[in-house]
Amino acid sequence: MPVLAALLLLLFTAVANAAEGPYLELDTKGHMALIRSIVFTPDGSELISASDDKTIRVWDVATGRIVRTIRGEIGDGDPGKIYALALSATGACLPPAAVPARQGRGSRSGSTTSTKAR
């Protein structure tokens, strides 16, 4: 029981101080919010998903396991939510579109960053 109390205290402290320091987040091995976009790699071996939980996850189609997680901006609110992504024909470039930090809530004015898929 003392361990549970300590973990809860740590969780509440981390959430209260998220803007000031480390941000505690539970990794459930899957998305924790609405999935906005899904694409397959050209060879069909991997699926890439983007979510409002501010992550892009690369999945192995054969096993259903996560191969890689790319995290966006950490913190509460809309900035960093990834609402669209595309994959180049060669599978080498993955440009996501996210809510920019400066414009915040409701803004969808094309902040894109190119990321190599592998």
Proper CATH architecture: Beta Barrel
Strand order of the largest sheet: 1-2-3-4
Unreliable residue stretches = 1-11, 13-18, 104-118
Share of helix among residues? 10-25%
Proportion of beta-strand residues: 25-35%
Average pLDDT level:
74
Note the overall shape: globular
Please report the total strand number as a whole number.
Answer: 9
Given this structure, which CATH class is correct?
Mainly Beta
Q: What's the gyration radius in Å? A: 16 Å
**Biggest sheet overview:** 4 strands, antiparallel
The SSE order reads HEEEEEEEEE
Number of domains: 1
Structural class: alpha+beta
The CATH topology is what? Thrombin, subunit H
Distance between the termini: 44 Å
- The helix count comes to 1
Could you list some keywords that capture this structure?
118 residues; alpha+beta; Thrombin, subunit H; three-stranded antiparallel beta sheet; 1 helix; 9 strands; 13% helix
Question: What's the short story on this structure?
Answer:
The chain is of the alpha+beta class and 118 residues long. The protein has one helix and nine strands. The protein has a single domain, classed as Thrombin, subunit H.
